[in-house]
Design a protein that fits this description.
heterotrimer, A mainly alpha (328), B mainly alpha (317), C alpha/beta (522), A: 328 residues, mainly alpha, ABC transporter involved in vitamin B12 uptake, BtuC, two-stranded antiparallel sheet, globular, B: 317 residues, 15 helices, 77% helix, transmembrane transporter activity (chain A), ABC_transp_permease (chain A), transmembrane helix (chain A), membrane (chain A), cell membrane (chain A)
């Protein structure tokens, strides 16, 4: 009844213009951050700082790639920060006396991440708990496990092998940046060219239609939550290696940062819309903005403040744009 | 078997089962720990509950309206540092700071509902953003304990009738008023209607915007009250006050049989949920579980409660 | 309520038609959607204290007409006259305030609130913001008593009431808002016979208070029982308005179908008496559908055969399709496809076995609207395209282009977002997705709904071609004309069982209508 009879090409050209614009916005954001940096924090452009920045952006991109997968199936993962902290605390403590135990440490961390991801998947898929409640609860449980395990005081040290990974360079390029790029590229490839990617977009865009079309929607959603935990572990390993120490706050902030990176890139909370390349740009924007704040002399508080605003603004813009497109 | 299961689920959804668990747990705790039933601990326990009860009342109102508020912990936190920091031992300034914080609460509630109603941002995203903004503001103000609460205010809080601290009595009065409001006011009726089905409410002539705004503002005011109660108990405002309040309140609401889909649930159940959670904390303490393991057990209880009580049944019917 | 009593004072109960002036009228109302007329120059009069039955097949314009009366839609031309005054309602609220209330099948009640809370939602009595619960409860009791429903406790939760009681509450909700005109949208589709009896009694009471009632139904026996006047619509026009006494079942069917259509030739396949050959593709034995009581079903379907299912909403026709497609699970029975037993588990296993469904609501269940055409078309076969390596863009593009061409979809190509296609082209994309699975059995649920005329005939042609190539097809449609155009064999379904097979000369519109509404032919 509501179908319009506008000539197809007219519709198409209208659509194109709005898509082009939407893909430009993240890059515009990056340009804006650079401009602000040029004014308020000239140090921003020093090679040292840019190196640090791309290193951090690479770490964030790994975590945010997982978050993007979850957002694509209309979920959200508020437990990535907790997974990062717990896995690194475990690795540090296991390798405390003997760095050769690193393999065992990594396996333990992998198992823990798998359990965390499966718990999220179970709550969301089987028990139908709203994802933000489910993952917030597992985050608290993971935090509890960590406190109980360390008796409140994380100890041990990050093994050298990981430090080389997190702080090292390859041909002058920070290793985490390379890893981040590879992870993003691999995820983008899966999303774009494999049946799994097509299942993910369909499950998030219209779960019911996906099911009717033969997509195993529950398994796809569960898989995304598990993947997110594994990506968080990978990001955690890089982060631990970069920081060189562990404390109870290592992963704090990564929940919101990864969400911000994804939504700035244009991935929608409603599911089925978005992609990881844009998340990479989002990671750069967030890292650059936070870095600039530090350079400009303001401390943690402004970072939190800005993150909050950015998430709200990005989602508000998305919502407005989709409502507008739908109304036409 | 299935029948029994249905009955149990039903008794949870009308908010009574949680009170039975509270009774059972209290009896068990009094039998296993001789310290539990002492006047000192009861007084201490009753002093602990108001904080979560206030947070739960706020969350209850937001959830009934079909929303959620993840910013209550940060709002309680900012209240606690401001009241302590501005008051700094001076009673006049203390009350001024309390007023200021309620004004901030109204502002935060309006901001949240602006995002939800006007910008159509989902409540959990909007309030997650607000949470981050408020946390930033707290840190901008202080990153450690700051100021103090006037001595005679604290004394008033610890004083009490028998085992009942004044703060507890104040909370009972607030609860009675809230219960009355839920039963008697036009707005409360519309709150349940909008949360239950905004489209049906609209067709009956009730616009959802103002109702959601009212619920989010009231929720923020309860969060401010939680912050005030906690800082008066602690005597000094710290930026860690209230960590985890939002999830504890959500869990309390869920334990009390309130549907996270909105429009369904009873205050008495949600309050029961809050009391149960505090009781578990207190019992863990009394039976000598180490402080470091308490977080683990608490987390396990929360995850289990959510896994069990946010049932498909609850959401579909 | 005061206005209601005054209106009954103006129009004495039992006034003869003509002697009293209409309460609500439409004059020359027309409405079209995207250039397709849905309502053409309709005059319609409602008198106080009378029940006016509104009849018509799907798409005849009944729902458009009541939507205009209740302010949900606005007429393109013509006027609405309420108590002698020209009015045009731009929102449901305005119509509501003027006393026009529509009660839809899908009730607008809140199940977790009490009866009295529901009745007074939005118009709660009380000073300042304090509710007067006593007055709410008293007025509710009084209202329910006046409707002869003393049994309903005003403090009971609506969700705990029976469907009839809920319907009564919904009517009470309308009356408390001073309804003068009550529009009942096909209550018999959701109520059982005993419950309907109660509703009829209630309607008789309402008539006595001077309320005008519009009663929409498909059931002719019902019309004979309760209506004072009858209006029959067809293809957006009013065919006839007359006193019930002037009509019988046969004349109503005639008016519903239209003379010229009734004599139109029966479907071509049936006349050709096409021979079926080979082994059956689908064998169904002893099948009882979930939640249905009827007799077990047994039938076979041969290659190239197109089976049509007709019946009223709730007769189980869609449920049969959903069950075969793996979306619902049968209470008992066996299904085999090409001789192999099928375990009904989920859509994936059904698709793998060769059964694929074009669902009823394509926007909700058929398409991922914000994805490109190509992604939608290959969605069901992505694991066949490649499980281990990647799926090249070129393969997707070629598959989609072939399908777009085969189905002559008007689009800018595989990369166009499905949301921006017309209804007919969207439907073709769903069919395209189903065809890529190379089905042995294609299930079509309302394939022509919301599709423009041009696309309709194309889709009919596509389905015939699919059948010619040896696929078995089952079609469900509530538009008899459509199903006659599509099918070889017709089964009539009622209450979850197949009651009748129509063949040859009996497969015509009037006969189908008779069979679905349950009128036996003498």
């Amino acid at each position: 009844m509501s179908t319009s009879v506008v000539a197809p090409d007219a519709q198409e050209s209208k659509r194109r213009s709005s898509v082009d614009l939407s893909q430009l916005t993240p890059l515009l954001g990056l340009a804006l951050v650079a401009l602000l940096a040029a004014i308020f924090a000239p140090k921003f452009f020093q090679a040292d700082n840019l190196g640090n920045l791309t290193r951090q952006a690479g770490i964030l991109a790994v975590v945010a790639a997982g978050q993007t997968l979850v957002l694509l199936v209309a979920g959200i993962d508020l437990s990535v920060g907790a997974v990062i902290t717990l896995s690194m605390v475990l690795i540090a403590k296991i390798c405390k006396t003997d760095e050769s135990k690193i393999l065992m440490a990594l396996i333990v961390a992998l198992i823990v991440a798998l359990i965390a991801g499966s718990a999220n998947a179970f709550l969301v898929v089987v028990r139908r708990v709203p994802p933000f409640v489910a993952t917030l609860a597992t985050a608290v449980l993971i935090g509890g496990v960590q406190t109980a395990y360390t008796q409140g005081v994380p100890s041990g040290s990050i093994p050298k092998a990981l430090t080389r990974l997190g702080s090292g360079n390859l041909h002058g390029i920070p290793v985490p940046s390379i890893v981040g790029l590879l992870v993003i590229a691999a995820t983008a490839f899966v999303l774009r060219y494999t049946y799994i990617g097509r299942w993910i977009y369909a499950s998030g865009g219209n779960p019911e239609a996906a099911r009717v079309s033969g997509v195993p929607v529950s398994r796809v959603v569960a898989g995304c939550f598990i993947a997110s935990s594994l990506f968080a572990l990978a990001g955690g390993i890089l982060l631990g290696g970069y920081a060189g120490y562990v404390d109870s706050y290592l992963g704090a902030g990564y929940d919101l940062d990864s969400i911000a990176a994804a939504v700035i890139g244009g991935t929608s909370f409603a599911g089925g819309k978005g992609g990881v390349w844009r998340t990479l740009v989002g990671s750069l924007i967030i890292t650059a903005a936070l870095n600039m704040i530090v350079l400009a002399g303001a401390s943690e508080w402004l970072q939190l403040f800005v993150k909050g605003f950015v998430v709200i603004l990005a989602v508000a813009i998305q919502t407005a744009r989709w409502n507008w497109r739908r109304r036409r | 078997m299935n029948d029994l299961k249905t009955k149990i689920i039903k008794s949870f959804s009308n908010g009574l089962a949680v009170w039975i668990i509270i009774a059972l747990l209290t009896i068990t705790a009094s039998l296993t720990s001789k310290d539990f039933a002492t006047l000192g601990n009861v007084n201490n326990y009753l002093g602990q509950t108001p904080f979560l009860i206030m947070g739960t009342c706020g969350m209850f109102l937001a959830v009934i309206a079909g929303q959620i508020d993840l910013s209550i912990a940060a709002l309680a936190k900012i209240t606690s540092v401001l009241v302590s920091g501005i008051g700094n031992g001076d009673e006049n300034k203390f009350w001024l700071a309390v007023l200021l914080c309620y004004a901030i609460g109204i502002g935060v509630g309006l901001f949240n509902s602006f995002l939800i109603v006007k910008l159509k941002v989902p409540a959990f995203v909007a309030t997650l953003g607000t949470y981050s903004i408020l946390e930033g503001l707290v840190l901008a103000y202080t990153n450690r304990g700051i100021g103090s609460i006037p001595g005679n205010v604290i004394v008033k809080f610890y004083d009490g009738v028998g085992p009942f601290p004044v703060s507890f009595i104040v909370v009972i009065v607030i609860l009675a008023l809230l219960g009355l409001w839920l039963k008697k006011s036009r707005l409360a009726l519309r709150l349940f209607a909008v949360g239950g089905d905004p489209e049906v409410a609209r067709r009956s002539g009730v616009a959802s915007g103002p109702v959601i705004t009212a619920s989010m503002v009231l929720c923020s005011l309860f969060a401010v009250s939680a912050g005030i109660i906690q800082v008066c108990r602690a005597g000094v405002g710290t930026p860690t006050t209230g960590n985890g309040l939002e999830l504890a309140a959500i869990t309390a609401v869920v334990l009390g049989g309130v549907s996270l889909m909105g429009g369904r649930g009873r205050l008495v159940g949600a309050i029961g949920g809050a009391i149960l959670i505090t009781l578990i904390d207190n019992s863990l303490n009394m039976i000598g579980v180490s402080q470091y393991s308490q977080g683990l057990l608490r987390g396990a209880v929360i995850v289990a409660a959510i896994a069990v009580f946010v049932s498909k049944r609850q959401q579909s019917t | 309520m005061s206005s209601r009593s005054s209106s009954s004072a103006n129009h004495p109960v039992g006034a003869e038609e003509g002697s009293s002036s209409p309460l609500l009228s439409t004059r020359g109302v027309s409405k079209s959607f995207s250039g397709v007329p849905a309502l053409i120059d309709v005059d319609f009069d409602l008198y106080p204290g009378r029940v006016h039955a509104l009849l018509g097949q799907n798409g005849a314009g009944k729902s458009t007409l009541i939507s205009i009366l209740s302010g949900v839609l606005q007429a393109d031309s013509g006027e609405i006259v309420l108590s002698g005054e020209s009015r045009n309602f731009s929102t449901p609220r305005e119509a509501l305030d003027a006393g026009i209330v529509a009660v839809y099948q899908e009730l607008s009640l809140l199940p977790h609130m009490t009866v009295s809370e529901n009745l007074f939602l939005g118009i709660e009595p009380g000073k300042l913001s304090v509710l007067d619960r006593k007055s709410m409860s008293d007025q509710s009791t009084e209202m329910l008593r006046s409707l002869g429903a003393e049994g309903i406790d005003p403090n009971a939760l609506v969700g705990t009431l029976s469907l009839t009681s809920q319907q009564i509450v919904e009517i009470a909700k309308a009356l408390i808002r001073n309804a003068k005109v009550l529009i009942l949208d096909e209550p018999s589709a959701v109520l059982g016979d005993d419950e309907l009896e109660l509703l009829y009694n209630l309607i008789a009471k309402l008539k006595a208070t001077g309320i005008a009632i519009v009663y929409i139904t498909h059931r002719l026996d019902e019309v004979m029982q309760i209506a004072d006047e009858v209006t029959i619509m067809r293809d957006g026009r009013k065919v006839i308005t007359t006193d019930r006494a002037n009509l019988d079942t046969e004349s109503m069917i005639e008016a519903l179908v239209g003379r010229k259509i009734a004599t139109k030739s029966a479907p071509k396949w049936i006349n050709e008496n096409r021979p079926v050959s080979g082994e059956p593709i689908l064998k169904v034995s002893n099948l009882i559908l979930p939640g249905m009581k009827g007799k077990a079903m047994d039938f076979d379907l041969f290659p190239g055969e197109i089976l049509g299912l007709v019946g009223m909403t709730g007769s189980g026709r869609s449920r049969l399709l959903r069950t075969l497609a793996g979306l619902a699970f049968p209470t008992s029975g066996q299904v085999s496809i090409d001789g192999k037993p099928l375990r009904i588990k989920n859509p994936r296993t059904s698709i793998a076995a060769g059964i694929v469904l074009v669902p009823e609501d394509r926007k909700r269940m058929g398409l991922v609207l914000d994805q490109p055409i190509g992604s939608n078309i290959v969605l069901s076969i992505v694991t066949r395209l490649s499980r281990i390596t990647w799926i090249p863009d070129s393969v997707v593009k070629k598959l989609s282009n072939d399908m777009l061409q085969r189905l002559s979809v008007k689009s800018t190509g595989p990369s166009q977002i499905v949301r921006f296609l017309s209804g007919g082209n969207q439907q073709k994309v769903v069919i395209g997705r189903c065809l890529t699975t190379k089905p042995r059995l294609l299930l079509l649920d309302e394939p022509l709904r919301g599709v423009d005329i041009g696309a309709k005939s194309e889709i009919v042609e596509i389905v015939s071609e699919i059948a010619r190539n040896g696929t078995a097809v089952i079609v469900v449609s509530s538009e008899i004309e459509d199903i006659l155009a599509l099918t070889d064999r017709l089964f009539v379904m009622r209450d979850g069982e197949m009651t009748q097979e129509l063949t040859g000369d009996h497969a015509n519109e009037a006969e189908v209508l008779r069979a679905t509404v349950g009128v036996t032919h003498e």
